[in-house]
Design a protein that fits this description.
With 267 residues, the chain is of the alpha/beta class. 52% of the residues lie in helices and 13% in strands. Bound molecules: cobalamin. The site of cobalamin has 33 residues, from helix 4, helix 5, helix 6, strand 6 and strand 7.
Length: 267
């Protein structure tokens, strides 16, 4: 289920059952504080919720080819509904990708169709990314995949969401081996390193990289955040090796972690 704030039209996270792609009627912490008791807003909430639900269903019911034809129209429609681009990516495009993965798994669509669909989503992300000031050489935050992971969309989305919050980040793709990653960090120290893992069989490579990073001298050792689908049901294994582990139910927790780190550093 997708946790959605019907007041400000923003994505809040997911909740069990994770593979049910429906929008739940919610209210984010910020809106709880500001508008909850106001009757006028209560009405807006109902309207927003129904419109967003329709929009979501419309996209879900499209075949991938139709999404391809209508992608510009879809972005515009989302923005017209007051859905900010980041929530559009997190709350609408991301569940679409998850759903596509399930269809492939159940042999309902071919891998070729998935490629086509992914490239359409990447184009939608290109369009959205264009509006953000992504600093190519920013190195406060380094984003990368674990060795062997070729899924790129997660890191791209994180980079846009970080840029929206004023952070510069650098994306390294394709992923480096643990040796090369450690070498890179020695040459180009980063404050925070984010590593994405997409499949469970990438866990040994992640453990190896995390172990190597832990052994770095304190002055150059970055704070490490990890996330991605490959962590599902395995968080405990990584607790001692990472400073932050993504929680699918609270997308905002990652940004709180980043804010807290940089505010503490600035103080
Ligand atoms: C698109 C896709 C592909 C594309 C990738 C293209 C590209 N350029 O990115 C291609 C076709 C290449 C591909 C290949 C494969 N894929 Co694939 N793929 C997907 C699919 C459909 C979508 C992935 C995606 O982009 N999701 C959208 C992003 C935004 O979501 P996300 O990755 O979860 O990331 C979000 C969060 O998890 C989080 N996050 C992620 N990383 C991090 C890191 C940090 C630090 C933080 C804080 C947060 C965070 O933030 C992101 C934004 O919210 C998924 C389906 C699915 N259910 O996820 C399968 C899926 C991930 N793939 C899968 C598999 C098995 C494969 C292949 C092995 C298939 C094959 N037999 O060849 C290969 C493996 C390639 C490899 N070595 O990595 C499986 C993994 C199963 C598992 N549990 O191990 C999935 C789940 C499909 C399935 N149901 O079977 N894939």
């Amino acid at each position: 289920m997708i946790r959605w704030c019907s007041y400000c039209q923003s994505f809040m996270g997911e909740k069990e059952p994770l593979d049910v792609f429906e929008i739940s009627h919610g209210v984010c912490i910020k809106c709880q504080k500001t508008v909850l008791k106001n009757q006028h807003h209560a009405k807006i909430k109902e309207e927003n919720f129904l419109k967003t639900k329709d929009f979501f269903q419309e996209i879900l019911s499209m075949s991938h080819l139709k999404v391809h034809d209508d992608k510009d129209e879809l972005i515009k429609k989302g923005l017209d509904l007051g859905i900010d681009p980041i929530s559009l990516i997190y709350g609408i495009l991301q569940p679409l990708m998850y759903r596509m993965g399930n269809l492939v798994k159940n042999n309902q669509v071919s891998l070729m169709e998935e490629y086509l669909y992914t490239s359409t989503i990447q184009k939608m992300i290109n369009r959205i990314e264009f509006d953000y000031d992504i600093e190519e050489n920013g190195k406060e935050i380094l984003l990368t995949n674990v060795e062997g992971n070729v899924h790129l969309i997660a890191c791209r989305i994180l980079r846009i969401a970080l840029a929206q919050r004023g952070y510069s980040s650098k994306l390294i793709f394709p992923a480096l081996s643990s040796d090369k990653l450690v070498h890179y960090l020695k040459e180009h120290p980063a404050k925070v390193l984010c590593i994405s893992i997409a499949t469970e069989d990438q866990q040994p490579a992640l453990l190896e990289s995390l172990q190597r990073i832990k052994e770095l001298d304190e002055e150059i050792r970055p704070l490490v955040a990890i996330g991605g689908r490959g962590l599902r049901y395995s968080r405990a294994k990584f607790l001692r090796l990472a400073d932050f582990i993504q929680d699918r139910e609270e997308t905002g927790a990652f940004f709180d972690f980043i804010d807290e780190f940089f505010n503490v550093k600035a103080a």
